[in-house]
Write a structure and sequence with these properties.
The radius of gyration is 30 Å and the shape is globular. The strands form 5 sheets. Strands 4, 5, 7, 8, 9, 21 and 22 form a 7-stranded antiparallel beta sheet that branches. α1 crosses α14 and α11 packs antiparallel against α12. A hairpin with a 3-residue loop joins β18 and β19. It is α+β, with helices and mostly antiparallel strands. It has 3 domains: 239 residues, Immunoglobulin-like; 173 residues, Immunoglobulin-like (Sandwich); 198 residues, no CATH class. The chain starts with a strand and ends with a helix.
């Protein structure tokens, strides 16, 4: 088209300010027509992608030996030189890109036989971004184009041959009000001097009040140690490390960034000095000795006597588990001992970093002293449901609905407004179906099919540095960017969707009282009622995990208005529970918000029936598929579906514990045992999956349910 026309995109938030996930992205697409144009359609696309690049070098190395001889008079000198050189060297960059979110809508149809008249045509738009979107990020942080990976969002407006792109930044939604304590299993080290002389045993343990912390927020860390050795603890070092694992093709790399380091933590009450009781200096520790040590460490951690504060720097990225990159955070506490010991004992705790909470930007979220291994918290519900009138759909991966994009009506024509089209008429834009042929062509050219993301971010990443080449980022990121692993939810009351974070009602009694209910709606409302809550609270001191109503995609509401919506394509409903289950697994592997996917399915009768008939094996498989941050929440959500059919057994609980990350196994036990109906006779099935330390932590929960 030459200089006949031009397109540009303006955003209401300006060029600098980032959009918070869960809010609206507003702006205008302006078409500047210099000369008459043929009719066409003005479309707008929103695309969020992960992109990684790994440089590799390939070539053939050849080793050559040279024997040289030189003569000086009658004296000869022989030199043997070794020369290494490369031939056929080629440098490659493995690149890979995956789509994590996308939206498409037709802003204006300049149809008809008449050409588009000269002038400015402004079309406003508004996209309601899903709260589960990860933050924009790039690593390493640099001013140039050099990077190894990034998460980027862009708007693309097209009309015929005219194309314009606009990059915009997203910040993840604030973390929820959930308190997720994490207690690490104590580690016991046998200290040796020069690898030969035994110096005794040192047991160390640690816990955090809340493992989900926002950037700039402070968390409380408690330590405990039992020094049954002849060595003193000289100092305690604390390090918070950010681990970025990324891949491209069959290549994978690892990058570690040190966020915080405290070289010596001052804890006056911690047992630093060597043991004075010679009877405790044994060559071997018996099981009774370990049980006593575990009990003492647990009491110390619950008392909070040896506690210090650690502030998460604002330069930290969000924890994120995506298709091509995984960002995790690890808190490592190392106890340095004297006496020339070979190994310094240490313990690690996984931390989830995200955007700071709205209600507590600088404070510390404290827990009940006895509720170390449980989640405490309740998320507020909105006073009213947002208007679901929208004109396009945002989806994650290939088939998971995430949210609705809403397109504003055109401006009212006035002397201060630009004309919407050549004859100043105001006609609403027709919304194309999601599988429009032009959009499919665009997808085939630019949007690769989504790849399954790794399951829960395993703690194996903590030791991944021993298996991969380590890199260190040159400069740290300044803006609060990164990928969110646990964004807060946008709550919307839905049919048969629990609204409370946790329920203190008795699930067994509720099942007996409402077994005759057919659709299950009365069951859930009864479980959330105040009836009988105090009785269970007295039996079980700590709170159990509960459910939060995930954000609706607005496509399954029974009262949803039909005008102005994108057409929804019909789909073939799976014929069996097995097909439903496999479909759910595929969605979870392509999801960036696992709990939201499973929670939304509770509004469908077929999936409610599937959840109520899960076998222990399938139950454990679902838990192992979701990310570490949501394993306990998902387990409780599914347990509530099983409890009303008397199907939730100790076998389900044992399988869930077996598939849970080691950091949250005790949380899983305390959250699920109130829902088990055969606990009195099959309790041993659960306890057989626990270690001695985990049995010590969960003993009180079992006793309170007798």
């Amino acid at each position: 088209m030459g200089n006949k026309a031009s397109l540009f995109i303006t955003l209401d938030n300006g060029n600098e300010r980032a959009i918070v996930a869960g809010n609206s992205l507003k702006g205008k697409v302006v078409l500047n027509v210099q000369r008459k144009l043929p009719p066409g359609e003005l479309v707008l696309r929103l695309v969020g992608t992960e992109y990684t690049i790994i440089p590799t070098r390939k070539g053939t190395r050849q080793v050559k030996f040279l024997l040289e001889c030189s003569w000086v008079g009658n004296i000869s000198t022989t030199y043997l030189s070794l020369t290494n050189f490369f031939i056929n060297i080629s440098f490659h960059h493995r690149r890979e890109e995956r789509t994590i979110a996308r939206a498409f809508t037709q802003l204006k149809n300049f149809g008809g036989s008449r050409k588009i008249a000269k002038g400015l045509y402004s079309q406003p738009f508004e996209f309601l971004l899903p709260p589960s979107l990860p933050s924009s990020t790039q690593f390493p942080k640099s001013e140039g184009k050099y990077f190894h990976g990034r998460i980027q969002y862009r708007l693309s407006a097209e009309m015929g041959d005219l194309v314009v792109d606009r990059i915009f930044d997203v910040i993840s939604a604030p973390l929820g009000d959930n308190i997720v304590p994490c207690i690490a299993e104590p580690t016991t080290y046998e200290l040796k001097q020069a690898r030969v002389l035994r110096k005794g045993y040192l047991s160390v343990g640690a816990c955090v009040d809340n493992s989900h912390v926002g950037r700039g927020q402070t968390m409380r860390v408690s330590l405990s140690a039992r020094n049954d050795s002849s060595c003193d603890i000289d100092r305690i070092r604390v390090k918070l490390t950010e681990i970025i694992e990324y891949k491209a093709g069959d290549e994978s790399h690892l990058c570690k960034n040190e966020l915080v380091e405290i070289k010596d933590v001052h804890l006056p009450l911690l047992q630093r000095s060597r043991s004075q009781d010679n009877l405790r200096l044994r060559k071997k520790k018996t099981r009774d000795d370990m049980a006593t040590t575990y009990s003492e460490i647990l009491n110390d951690l619950r008392s909070g006597n040896n506690t210090f504060k650690l502030t998460i720097p604002k330069s930290a990225r969000d924890s994120y588990n995506g298709n091509l990159m995984t960002i995790s955070h690890v808190l490592k506490i190392t106890f340095y001992t004297g006496g020339m010991t070979v190994e310094n004992p240490s313990t690690k705790i996984a931390i989830v970093v995200g955007s700071p909470r709205c209600n507590d930007l600088t404070g510390i979220v404290q827990r009940n002293a006895d509720a170390i291994a449980t989640i405490v918290g309740e998320d507020p519900l909105p006073s009213e449901v947002p208007d679901p009138c929208d004109d396009s759909t945002v989806s994650v991966g290939g088939e998971i609905p995430m949210a609705e994009a809403r397109i504003l009506p055109p401006f009212v024509n006035s002397p201060n407004r630009y004309p919407i089209d050549g004859n100043n008429s105001l006609r609403p834009a027709r919304i194309l179906p999601y599988n429009d042929e032009d959009y499919e062509d665009y997808e085939r050219q630019f949007l690769p099919s989504p790849m399954p993301i790794p399951s829960a971010p395993h703690e194996s990443l903590l030791d991944a540095g021993n298996q991969r080449t380590r890199q260190r980022e040159g400069t740290r990121i300044d803006a609060p960017l990164g990928g969110s692993a646990n964004p807060s939810h946008r709550y919307q009351p839905q049919p048969y969707a629990p609204n409370a974070m946790y329920s203190r009602s008795n699930p067994i009694r509720d099942r007996e009282r409402f077994d005759s209910t057919a659709d299950g709606s009365d069951l859930e409302s009864s479980a959330e009622s105040s009836y009988g809550q105090e009785q269970l609270r007295n039996r079980f001191d700590s709170y159990s995990y509960g459910e939060t109503t995930a954000m609706s995609d607005l496509t399954d509401l029974h009262e949803r208005p039909q005008l102005g919506h994108a057409e929804v394509l019909p789909y073939d409903k799976p014929k069996s529970s097995k097909e439903l289950f496999q479909k759910l697994l595929r969605e979870l592997r392509a999801s960036i918000h696992d709990y939201e996917v499973i929670s939304n399915k509770t509004r469908e009768a077929d999936y409610r029936e599937l959840y109520a008939s899960l076998t222990p094996k399938d139950y454990g498989l679902l838990i192992s598929t979701v990310s570490m941050s949501y394993q306990v929440q998902v387990a409780v959500l599914l347990a509530r579906q099983l409890v009303y059919s008397s199907s939730f057994t100790c076998c389900h609980c044992a399988e869930a514990v077996n598939k849970t990350s080691t950091y949250f196994r005790t949380n899983m036990v305390e959250a699920l045992i109130p829902y088990v109906h055969d606990l009195a006779i099959n309790r041993n099935l659960i306890e057989s999956e626990l270690t001695d330390w985990e049995r010590c932590v969960t003993a009180r929960a079992f006793e309170n349910l007798k």
